[in-house]
């Protein structure tokens, strides 16, 4: 297997292990953050191949209690992509979103 290196960018003013109180340490992943892969490249270090994933820590998206917020987010982030779909592709996406 090829080893994986992760270059992780953190949000400003956060650390990977922030203290909640004096007896408890939580990682950002445990605090409703997610890892978003920005770029993947193959690199060579001292003659050995690695896969390098450049990633960011982002706030998790959770729309289970607010469908309209999720719909708005999808339209804001995917309108360019969805405008390029064929009618059949768009029908398939809409069918999937309705649970078909």
Q: What's this entry about, in short?
A:
It comes from Clostridium perfringens. This is Iota toxin component A. The chain is an alpha+beta fold and 100 residues long.
Tell me the layout of helices and strands:
Elements: E1 4-9, E2 19-21, E3 24-25, E4 33-45, E5 48-59, H1 67-83, H2 87-97
Parallel strand pairs: 1-5
Antiparallel strand pairs: 2-3, 4-5
Protein name: Iota toxin component A
InterPro entries: Binary_toxinA_clost-typ (IPR016013)
Question: Which features characterize this protein?
Answer:
Binary_toxinA_clost-typ; 2 helices; 2 domains; two-stranded antiparallel sheet; 100 residues; Iota toxin component A; extended; alpha+beta; 3-stranded mixed β-sheet
* Structure class: alpha+beta
Helix content: 25-40%
Strand percent estimate: 35-45%
What number of structural domains do the residues give? 2
Strand order of the largest sheet: 1-5-4
Give the uncertain stretches in residue-range form: none
Distance between the termini: 37 Å
How many strand segments? Answer: 5
Number of helices: 2
Q: Please state the CA-atom Rg, rounded to the nearest Å.
A: 19 Å
Shape: extended
Largest β sheet strand count, sense and barrel closure:
3 strands, mixed
The average pLDDT is 80
N-to-C series of helices and strands:
EEEEEHH
Protein name: Iota toxin component A
């Amino acid at each position: 297997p090829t080893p994986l290196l992760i270059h992780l960018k953190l949000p400003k003013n956060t650390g990977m292990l922030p203290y909640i109180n004096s007896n408890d340490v939580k990682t950002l992943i445990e605090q409703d953050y997610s890892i978003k892969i920005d770029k993947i490249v193959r690199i060579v270090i001292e003659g050995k191949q690695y896969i390098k994933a450049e990633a960011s820590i982002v706030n998790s998206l959770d729309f289970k209690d607010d469908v309209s917020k999720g719909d708005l987010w999808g339209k804001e982030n995917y309108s360019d992509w969805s405008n390029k779909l064929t009618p059949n592709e768009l029908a398939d996406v809409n069918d999937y979103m309705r649970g078909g």
